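Table 4 source record.
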Amino acid sequence: MGNSTALHSVSEHPVIGAAVTRRTSLVLPPGFSLAEWKRVGKHLFLIADSSCWWHGDWLVYGQERYPGKYRQAMEETGLDYKTLRNYAWIARRFPASERHPRLSFQHHAEVASLAPEERRSWLNRAAREGWSRNRLRHELRKELADPSDVREPRHVRLQLRTTAEQETAWTRAAERDGLELAEWITASLDRAAGLDDGAEP
């Protein structure tokens, strides 16, 4: 028996205005006005953008409730693990009450690594100014850049003596947080040293 998953919708052919959605197509009626066509496009964007949050919340729930089984369940979505992990990390960084309804998931991704107050300030500014995701990224880089710091980042190789029990426990903890083991170790060290500003590991 294969790993294929049947996909079902609440309605066999959901309707968006006069447009009909099917599993593999969008059917638009003849004579669709420009205004109607644009409205459907906006609706489709909102569905796609919201699905990023939905996938993130779905994975966070699985990580917390089914820590030993969520990886297998993830395969049923057909999405890349790293993509889902990114969705989950951002969903953890932004509780539902802190997600700005006028901005896209990608806007939130741009500021996810900042401290809570900074995130809120940048998102409010982006919404007020009507910035695109790319404009927000540009403004962030301009604001956070330090022209006096021209040093290249140092790459350090560390070797750790660990037991099999430690490695297993660390790997499980990293999976719960949606991170690779090396990323989880780095985040844990940053947090212990007070360098993370409250960031999610």
